[in-house]
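Training component of the fellowship. As part of building independent skills, the fellow (R.M.) carried out the full modelling exercise for a liganded target. The chosen ligand was zinc ion. The inputs are recorded below so that the supervisory panel can assess the work.
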Amino acid sequence: MCEKVSKMIRSLSALLLALILALGPAEGALGEYKSPDQIAREAAEKAAAMQEEARAEIEARAESKALAEEPGDAGDEAPPGISFEKPRETEAQIDARSKELEKKYGLAIKRDNGGSGESCVGTAALDALDLALESVTPAFVRQVSGYWQKRAGKRLSFSFTYSPKGATALGLGVTGFFDVENAVIEIYLPDYSRGASLGGESPLNCLHEFGHAVQYMLMELHGEAALEREWGKLNGEKAAYTFGEYPEHYDETVWISAYASTRYEEDFAEVFAHAFLRHREGMGFASRLTDGEGKYTVLGKKAAYIEKLLKLYAGNPGEVIGNMRRLYLAFESREYKGLTVSGDYLQFGGCPAPRYLLAGLLSSMKLTPDIGAWVNDIGGWEVTTGEGKRFLIFPGGKYFAL
Ligand SMILES: [Zn+2]
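Fellow's submitted model of the complex:
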């Protein structure tokens, strides 16, 4: 969903240029002559040192997070320790499912095997991707992929790959990245040898990254400046992006998520993903789209603006907008065995169990994955402890006592 650390590392080449520019005049003003070569060399050294520092910080924070992940008491949020579950299917079966999706959506789908020969994702992740893309319709996905074929010379691709080392264990949320130059949506899976948390294999994350691919297409079709200006107008004066930190509290009638409030690009991708995906029972957020008098809130205006763009530029506007409008009818909570559940952690409803399990939680409750049963309809595990206690656990860490 977010690509903070990955961007930090990737932006270092841009930084190199910035350093060259910064070092030049400033040093010159002090009267010390430096040849362009020397300046470039120093800038490269500085950039390398900063990159090293960024990596060291990732490592250090991964270590301290791992220490903090000792099993504890059950709270509202589950401990994030999650382990890898071996795939239950053969590589040939994963391959076949992957080819099926490539054909259905006109995409390329790649998956890393970390050098082990064993794919980092199984058919469960591909099913989650299918559920996400189906919501924006195969025809529209093919249109977007076709745009990238023209722009980058190759189809849009989803590439499932291991995350930058340890990054997902940090809670830094490095779950995806859209590589504009190569038209590749990278979906990061946790490095399971480090007991990392759930990676990017969620429907919302897949659609968020696809949202970026759509956004770039619209920048060209609608005009980059017009798009940003019109979007900014919807936010009005009371809403400003944080350009970095996640706010602890945010206005839910302005932002769909904390991440959306960090910058314009993420805001667009987040609204896009949530608007298409959260039409299932319990996941709705229609009450955040209009106020008491039936007028659009800022968030409502943003959803309506995406609808307007789709009407203008989607090849199958009726079908796409029809899918998106299911959002307005979706129940905002649902009951399950006496519990009321609601929100985006229900996003795995209708998907098979993801391969990354809540190992930390399971071990603290003396559970094994075998004790739990995946409830497909609700997208969580129902588990019974050795002491006979029963829990409902969702991928990503949310859990409830039954
Ligand atoms: Zn993003």
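The panel noted the following from the submitted structure. The domain at 91-329 is CATH 3.40.390 (Collagenase (Catalytic Domain)). The longest helix spans residues 36-68.
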